[in-house]
Specification:
Number of domains: 1
Largest sheet: 6 strands, mixed
Structural class: alpha+beta
Radius of gyration: 17 Å
Mean pLDDT: 85
CATH class: Alpha Beta
Organism: Caenimonas koreensis DSM 17982
Helix content: 25-40%
Shape: globular
CATH architecture: Roll
Protein name: Nuclear transport factor 2 family protein
Low-confidence stretches: none
Domain SnoaL-like: 12-115
InterPro entries: NTF2-like_dom_sf, SnoaL-like
Length: 145
Amino acid sequence: MTMRISDADRIAEFFERFSRADLVRLQDAYVPDALFKDPFNEVRGLPAIEKIFRHMFDTLDDPKFVVRHRMSQGRECWLAWDMVFRFKSSKPGQQEVIRGASHLMLADDGRIAEHRDYWDAAEELYEKLPVLGALMRWLKRKIAT
């Protein structure tokens, strides 16, 4: 009996090894008309998805995904992940982390047909920015009970 790697394991491995050089391999992971949605983007098609990932590599130093949990059933897959990176303006060694999850719907061939990322932009990103971060932390304290 041959053991087959699960779709969740295969996709998690793709993202954990993902680098700028892999932008040309996105068609191995996504169908041509795949949908991608995150807190800032909603696009369809490989060229638009590639543009989002290219922007990530252009604006961040050394972004890496660390998949913490994975789950799949049928053609549906969930990944819980940390994205570890440095802002271009960061001090050497200063890393940031965004914690999030991806809900993936897979095509019959196992490639991603729909990719929806869930993460809190206010807590995970805005609070880490110098001026905006101070304002977001102040607002959070005022609103908290």
